[in-house]
Amino acid sequence: MDENPYFNVSNLVVGYDDITIVDGLSLTLQQGEIGCFLGYSGCGKTTALRAIAGLEPTRQGTISLNNQRLTEKNERTSFAVAPAKRGMGMVFQDYALFGHLTVAKNIAFGLNSWPATDKKARVAEMLTLVGLTKHANKRPAELSGGQQQRVALARALAPKPKLLLLDEPFSNLDVVLRESLAMSVRDILKRTHTTAILVTHDQNEAFAIADKVGVMHKGELVQWATPSELYHEPVSPFVAEFVGEGAMIDGIIKEGHVETALGDIYRRMEVYDASGQPQYCEYDYPNGTPIKVLVRPDDIIHDDDSTQTALVIGRVFRGANYLYRLQLDDGQTVLSLVASHHNHEIGSHIGILPLLEHVVVFDEKDINATTWSEYDKPLSSSRLNTPLT
């Protein structure tokens, strides 16, 4: 946790009757950072966002924003600042625009207490920011879905909120528009130095917008980290499976290395705790310990000159790349992302060069004890820091 975070949530618990929906949520953001709750439907991410906004009661925990305590609930203290007084803006899934008002009046809706001159200038500023100046006098029904989303964003930003909350803001848009709009929204938030939290089930959106992403599962924040850290240093099999693509292959600990079907991995291990923080200590499993090694598609390089080959058993065309599913000599499978001008048919063998520089391993007994779909608690993981030799 940061020492003096701009936004801080500590041990937040939200539930009803005997049901706990959010369990022990803790995170921090500095001013201007964008965070994201990422997870499957029903994991508690929207409830967490609504609790931060003050729209859901909390059972336990504290929420602080810009040095102001908004919520505190424990054995000694219980209070919560009203939602309207938290200094937050919100963009809803359905935009919640006023159909009878123009774009300009929608944006001005939260500025009723502003002087008329200041209000007019702020609306003009927001219209320019989201590129809708020419549409100021139109009504929402006359706009496209993407334009409506930008109106909702401008309306939420107009009062200069201390924190902006976005609940699945792109879910009603087509895939292509979602990707371009996600990058546009990030640019707008960064230009206005707005601290924000996004909720989504789409990791492409999360990675395109957020500085910090929290993977949620069954009400728990499994890992809060940068997109790169989530991808390369997942703290559990669940995060490894949920974020990105990859395959788990068998490995076994031997003196000084790990034996795998891709070759021997020589390494120094660093242990990561459940929050993803490195403990910086030497660690090793006993000789003979079976482990699982996470191999990402970018860990397997296609090399026509390599003496090591794999059988193509599946492929997906992705424009600039093919995602190949490859079978190793022992029957295990891995994925490889290859430039699409390398067009190899299913059933052919291709040369591969494993470059396992950021390998994550998990103890096989821990994986066998809990399937990824029924994952409950974070498992410890270790990163292998040196490539194959």
Write out key terms for the chains shown.
389 residues; alpha+beta; Rossmann fold; OB fold (Dihydrolipoamide Acetyltransferase, E2P); 6-stranded mixed sheet; 34% strand; disordered C terminus
CATH 2nd-level architecture of the largest domain: 3-Layer(aba) Sandwich
Number of helices: 9
Q: Using the CA coordinates, give the radius of gyration.
A: 24 Å
| Relevant CATH superfamily of the largest domain | P-loop containing nucleotide triphosphate hydrolases
Major sheet: size, sense and barrel closure? 7 strands, antiparallel
How much of the residues is beta strand, in percent?
A: 25-35%
Written overview of the protein:
The chain is α+β, with helices and mostly antiparallel strands and 389 residues long. The chain folds into 2 domains: 7-229, Rossmann fold (3-Layer(aba) Sandwich), CATH 3.40.50; 246-384, OB fold (Dihydrolipoamide Acetyltransferase, E2P), CATH 2.40.50.140. It is 21% helix and 34% strand. It is built from 9 helices and 23 strands. It has helices at residues 45-53, 103-107, 116-129, 145-157, 175-191, 203-209, 227-232, 237-242, 364-369; strands spanning 7-16, 19-29, 34-38, 60-65, 68-73, 78-80, 88-91, 163-167, 196-200, 212-217, 220-225, 247-254, 257-260, 263-266, 269-272, 290-295, 300-302, 309-317, 321-327, 333-339, 349-354, 359-363, 381-384. It has a 7-stranded antiparallel beta sheet. Strands 7-8-9-3-10-11 form a 6-stranded mixed beta sheet, with helices on both faces. Strands 2-1-4-5-6 form a 5-stranded antiparallel beta sheet, with helices on one face. Helix 5 (175-191) runs parallel beside helix 6 (203-209). 39% of the residues are buried.
